[in-house]
Each structure stands twice: as structure tokens, then as C-alpha cells.
Amino acid sequence: MADEDRGGRRRAPGELESSVLAALWSADGPLTPAQVKALLPGDLAYTTVLTILSRLLDKGLLSRRRAGRGYAYEALRSEAAHTAEQMRSLLERRSDRGAVLARFVSELSEDDERLLKRLLDERED
User: More exposed terminus of the chain, fewer Cβ within 10 Å: N or C?
Assistant: First the structure.
């Protein structure tokens, strides 16, 4: 089943997609579905991995190229670029962006706050 692992635990929405993307980001190049499956925890069915790869391809997050009789898949964007896009998309859907950003900043660790400040300062230069 796609929404449960073989132990019967219900997966969070997007958990498999995130795991597949993480496997692709950790690779040095394109991976076949069998290679992706080998990098994932648990005992997923090959067809489940293939379905997730197809969905990510349809969403425009992956590219694929011929590899023998099948395909090898690769993420089109880095993990940082993908995460930044998700954050920007969430922010754009909120009516009070200032409140969201203020809350976000207030919950940062001191180290992350310093890093964000440095990045903003560098952007101004």
C-alpha cells in the first residue's frame, strides 16, 4: 500500500516523495528505480518507488534519461533550492506575510538568527 509502510504504520502525506528526493539528492548522478529503492528505508515495493518517481517527474521535480531498458532519474533542483521554493510558496499563500515572517524569526535559534542576519547583510552589499 502506498499510504502505509509494510509495518502497517500510516505515512505522513508526502513522506515517500521526500524520502525519494533525499535519496536522489544524496546521489552523485541519476539513479534507476532499483537504486533508489535500495537507498530507502523499509521494504518498499519496486512498483511503489516507480510510482513515486513518476509523480515527481509529472510535478516537474525530476528529469529522466534512458538507462538500458528503463530510466534513470535525477532531481532538477538542489535540496536547498527545493526547500526555499516550498518556503516561498507557503509564505505567498498567507494573508499576513509580516506576521508569518515575524513568527518564523522569533522561533529561530540564535545561530540561525545570526546566519539569517549575515545573509541579509550580504544581500544588501
Answer: C
Alpha carbons 49 and 75: distance in angstroms, whole number: 15
Distance from the first to the final alpha carbon of the chain: 52
- Bigger pLDDT: 3 or 63? 63
Q: Do the beta carbons of residue 49 and residue 6 sit within 8 Å? A: no
How far, in Å, CA of 1 to CA of 7, rounded? 11
Q: Do you know the residue count of the chain?
A: 125
Distance of CA 74 to the CA centre of its chain: 12
Q: How far apart are CA 79 and CA 95, in angstroms?
A: 27
The region, left, alpha or beta by phi > 0 then psi within -120 to 50, assigned to residue 123 is alpha
